[in-house]
TrEMBL record:
Pfam families according to UniProt: MC_hydratase (PF19315)
Protein name (database record): Uncharacterized protein
TM region(s), chain numbering: none
Top-level taxon in the UniProt lineage: Bacteria
One GO molecular-function entry: lyase activity
Organism: Parasedimentitalea maritima
PANTHER family for this protein: BETA-METHYLMALYL-COA DEHYDRATASE, MONOAMINE OXIDASE-RELATED
Length: 348
């Protein structure tokens, strides 16, 4: 006699499975090793000195070199995918992101998210869910937090639409909301080792920087990245999950590639501490050549010795002229892949 039992596999949540106030405790905790840094630097041309050299980090007041800020972000983000975006159509945006503590080799990170918003789309087949996610270390300290919103399919198109709840989010973090790592001191900053002489005072609000270099996205590296960060969203792995039969390049892969390309012109923009907002403007697929440009949006001094904060817009493109972002209709140009607004720390 054949016995039946409840399904033991996880097909992921759909739009109708979320309720505002839900708290999602994500599996599986992960202990950070030197492998994360090595693989991150192999996937991207990442060269910022603070994340490359223990000696440079110690000279800057830290106990040793942390893992890259975006590596920590990807690690936490990946934990959320099975519970938040496994059945996503697209990840739509970010807000109120803050890096609260550096992450070092040996730290163990876990993640949890709270559903803070929900709204069904007019087509009745999809909806948008907002979550606030925290990455937490082995001492129960929050190392980073951010809000993101994602478009999800409905499993049952006849399921009733929930009452919409759209969270009010800060468009820009103020400087006093940024957390400067304890002990950070750029008073004895070594510009020669960092790779460029340009400091905080050399950048003007409104200035735009063409980062010149380009990198062609390969299918193999993208698949390695999604596996490294355990991002199992179907649109990244399964060619049957998209109508055109292509894999969608993980948006975090584009963010890290653009950030690495920005080294040429912003080598001293060492630590990302705030994420004001971000949009994956158009899909990225393998074979595209990614280039990047930045715009200085704001500047502020901080209480840390020798440390200034600079707010940047980082734009990743696939072709087209630099410094072109939107058309006359106000929509992103089709070659724009990423529009990211963030705060970074730089020597005065």
């Amino acid at each position: 006699m054949t016995k039946t039992s409840p399904a033991k596999t996880n097909s992921g949540r759909f739009f109708e499975d979320y309720t505002v106030g839900d708290v999602l405790h994500h599996a599986v905790p992960r202990t950070v090793s030197g492998g994360e840094r090595a693989l991150y630097h192999a996937l991207y041309p990442a060269r910022h000195a603070l994340y490359s050299s223990d000696e440079f980090a110690r000279r800057s007041g830290l106990p040793k070199s942390p893992i890259d800020d975006l590596a920590a972000f990807h690690l936490v983000f990946g934990k959320t995918v099975p519970d938040v975006s496994l059945n996503a159509v697209a990840n739509l945006g970010y807000a109120e992101g803050r890096w609260l503590l550096p992450v070092y080799e040996g730290d163990t990170l876990r993640a949890e998210s709270e559903v803070i918003g929900i709204k069904q789309n007019s087509n009745g087949k999809t909806g948008v869910v907002w979550v606030r996610t925290r990455g937490i270390n082995q001492r129960d300290e929050s190392v980073l937090e951010y809000v993101r919103w994602v478009m999800l399919r409905k499993s049952d198109v006849d399921a009733p639409a929930p009452s919409p709840v759209i969270p009010e989010l800060n468009k820009v973090l103020s400087v006093d909301q940024l957390v400067i790592p304890q002990g950070l001191d750029f008073s004895n900053y070594d510009f020669a080792q960092a790779g460029e002489l340009h400091r905080w005072g050399d950048y003007a609000v409104g200035e735009k920087i063409d980062h010149v270099d380009g990198v062609t996205i390969e299918e193999a590296e993208h698949m390695l990245a999604t596996r490294l960060w355990q991002n199992t969203a179907k649109v990244h792995f399964d060619t049957t999950a998209r109508p055109d039969g292509s894999r969608l390049i993980y948006g975090g892969h584009v963010i890290s590639m653009a950030r690495a390309l920005s080294f040429n012109g912003l080598a001293n923009a060492q630590m990302i501490v705030g994420l004001n907002g971000g949009a994956h403007a158009n899909p990225c697929t393998s074979g595209m050549t990614v280039r990047a440009w930045s715009e200085v949006l704001d500047k502020a001094e901080t209480s840390a010795p020798g440390v200034g904060a600079i707010r940047l817009r980082l734009v990743a493109t696939a072709g087209g002229e630099p410094f072109s972002l939107k058309g006359e209709d106000g929509k992103y140009l089709p070659n724009v892949l990423l529009d990211l607004d963030y705060w970074v720390l730089m020597p005065l």
